[in-house]
Amino acid sequence: MQIIKEKRFYKNIAAITIPIALQNLITFATNMMDTVMLGRADNTGTFLSASSLANQPFFILSLVCFGLAGASTVLSAQYWGKRDTASIRAIFSIVLKIAFLLSLLMTLAVLLFPAAIMGLYSNNSEIIEAGVSYLKILGFAYILFGLSNTMICCIRSIELVKISVVVNITSFCTNVFLNWVLIFGHLGAPALGIRGAAIATLTARIAEFIITFTYIFFIDKRLKFRPKHLLLMNKVFAVDLFKHGLPVFINEVMWSLGITVQAAVLGHIAYSAGDPVAANSIASTVQQLSTVVIFGIANAAGIIIGKSIGSGNIERAGTEAQTLKYLSYVVGVAACIIILLLKNIVIDFYTVGAETKLLAHQLMITIAFITIGVSVSSISIVGILRGGGDTRYCMIMEIVALWFIATPLAILASFLQLPVPAVLVMMKIDEPLKSIASVIRINSGKWIKSLARDFGKERI
């Protein structure tokens, strides 16, 4: 069994993981405060369900941004191993242009067709109406978020992660304070309910954008990315991004669409005693808390593996992969235990009906054990395999598991009116399947691919 024992390796993982985990934790806290405040502002659960469903397009955009950044990371992490910052600047320039275009299209969609979008996720007229009022405000944040979030995710590949903590702390404080003021009508402000939550989130996204781009364009000295570099367009990197990064982007987009389809399945369940959407929102919040370290390690793994391959140390990359694989097992079990310990405490935060609370309790138990698979699949796919450049295999594996197995089974379970926890099991059955397939791939050694070209560092 190949396991790295040197402290430097684990310190390197921690140095990347902790800031990313803190960023995810702050994002979790922001989402949790949104749901708690909206739940207290409306004990019918309408605001909570409406905001949860109205945020699905925003969730798609965040996954698109993550996909774009992931596409760039496949190449930029290996170029970072060569310390070729000129190549990385050219890659980031291309990715930001694409992020702007896609964010603009998403903005137009939610602002022009909010009712049609909400209708995809729910057939409840009150939820649709509340969600429309939310989207009409939040839609203006899409472009700002698309650019800032893509860039924050991109610069992780060069081990620049601390700025994301500053950005997210600012966003959290802004969002929570304005939620308190605008949802409930404190400090002389009108009580705007769900519209107040949308205004608070929009303001927080504006703050994120200002801080991110001020730092990247005028302060950072590692990458030295300046406004003039936005004009860069290198055909060689465009081709490489298309070839090696496009599978990552397609992977993330198809995954996000699959998750929104699953959200729609829950939103159309009418036979459950409790509200499936509200219960799942509560349960998912706890899962996000328990998995902040998982996704931090997954991102760290991709950077570390890519850096080793880029520097030409292939044997080292293989040993690192085996170590990270075993680490994913340990972290997954720990996350499962955390969810089981926190489930009752978190549920008591929410002002929802007794039947919805009972359903949330059942879903949390289900999610706790699924999280073990989430840990193994995330660290293996997002970290090891993508870091090694094996993006096509990851794409095929994830699409088959989600679209050809999990989603059809979830729709069938809903059609048969199985209990909501059983529907959730079908939705998440892809996680253990991906875990098995990814571990087999890692053990085969076929995933290691050197993608970085040998260019001079100052050619651009």
Q: Helicity level, as a percent range?
A: over 70%
Mean pLDDT: 86
Radius of gyration: 22 Å
Beta-strand content bin: under 5%
Structural class: mainly alpha
Q: What pattern of helices and strands is seen along the backbone? A: HHHHHHHHHHHHHHHHH
Please tell me what the overall shape is. Answer: globular
The overall strand count is: 0
Number of helices: 17
Distance between the termini: 44 Å
Q: Sheet bearing the most strands, described?
A: none
Q: List low-confidence stretches.
A: none
Overview in brief:
This protein is mainly alpha-helical.
Write up what this structure looks like.
By secondary structure, the protein is mainly α. The chain has helices at residues 7-41, 46-54, 56-81, 85-112, 114-121, 125-138, 142-154, 162-184, 194-218, 235-267, 276-290, 292-310, 314-347, 354-387, 391-415, 420-427, 430-444. It is globular, with a radius of gyration of 22 Å. The model has no long low-confidence stretch (mean pLDDT 86).
Give the tags.
460 residues; 17 helices
Topology:
Layout: H1 7-41, H2 46-54, H3 56-81, H4 85-112, H5 114-121, H6 125-138, H7 142-154, H8 162-184, H9 194-218, H10 235-267, H11 276-290, H12 292-310, H13 314-347, H14 354-387, H15 391-415, H16 420-427, H17 430-444
